[in-house]
């Protein structure tokens, strides 16, 4: 495994080796692979469903998905989807939202919608779940109201 590829797993493997806990290592590895496959399938699904809006610069194996506005060029959202393993070997997804908007738009954003978007995205994830939250954002940016 390359040190930069799946850095979360590399760190966990080192911890598991120190603890000499093979059961925890293989159990966590199993769930890590399942989350990686789910992320890959989810990104692939949205790329196929919204080919003009969704961009996967590193392919479906990427941990980032770009959502580009079809109505407002220069407006982009980047979903960063990491898979984390805690000290006890519990595996869980961590999704973050980054915004890319023109400077002029930032100046016009009096309600700080752009600034608070990452926190609002976390709330949306909690309410809708991963796939529905991503679909809502993509539809918003693509202008697809279906």
SS-based class? alpha+beta
Residues in helix, %: 40-55%
Give the strand order of the largest sheet, numbering strands 1, 2, ... along the chain.
Answer: 1-2-3-4
Reported for the largest beta sheet, the result is: 4 strands, antiparallel
SSE string, helices as H and strands as E: HHEEEEHHH
Strand content: 15-25%
Would you give an account of this structure?
The protein is built from 5 helices and 4 strands. The protein has helices at residues 7-19, 22-49, 103-108, 113-128, 130-142; strands spanning 54-55, 64-68, 76-85, 91-100. A 4-stranded antiparallel sheet has the order 1-2-3-4. The protein is elongated. The protein starts with 6 loop residues before the first helix and ends with a helix.
Name the descriptors.
alpha+beta, four-stranded antiparallel sheet, elongated
Q: Summarize this, please?
A:
The protein has 146 residues and is of the alpha+beta class. The protein is built from 5 helices and 4 strands.
List the helices and strands and how they pair.
Elements: H1 7-19, H2 22-49, E1 54-55, E2 64-68, E3 76-85, E4 91-100, H3 103-108, H4 113-128, H5 130-142
Antiparallel strand pairs: 1-2, 2-3, 3-4
Helix pairs in contact: 1-2, 4-5
């Amino acid at each position: 495994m390359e040190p930069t590829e799946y850095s979360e797993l590399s760190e966990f493997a080192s911890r598991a080796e120190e603890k000499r806990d093979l059961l925890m290592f293989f159990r966590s590895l199993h769930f890590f692979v399942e989350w990686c496959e789910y992320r890959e399938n989810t990104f692939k699904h949205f790329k196929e469903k919204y080919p003009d809006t969704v961009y996967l610069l590193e392919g479906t194996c990427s941990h980032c998905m770009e959502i580009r506005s079809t109505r407002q060029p220069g407006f982009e959202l980047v979903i960063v989807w990491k898979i984390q393993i805690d000290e006890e070997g519990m595996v869980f997804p961590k999704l973050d939202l980054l915004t890319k908007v023109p400077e002029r738009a930032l100046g016009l954003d009096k309600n700080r919608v752009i600034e608070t978007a990452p926190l609002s995205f976390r709330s949306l994830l909690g309410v809708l779940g991963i796939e529905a939250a991503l679909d809502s954002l993509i539809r918003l940016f693509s202008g697809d109201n279906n």
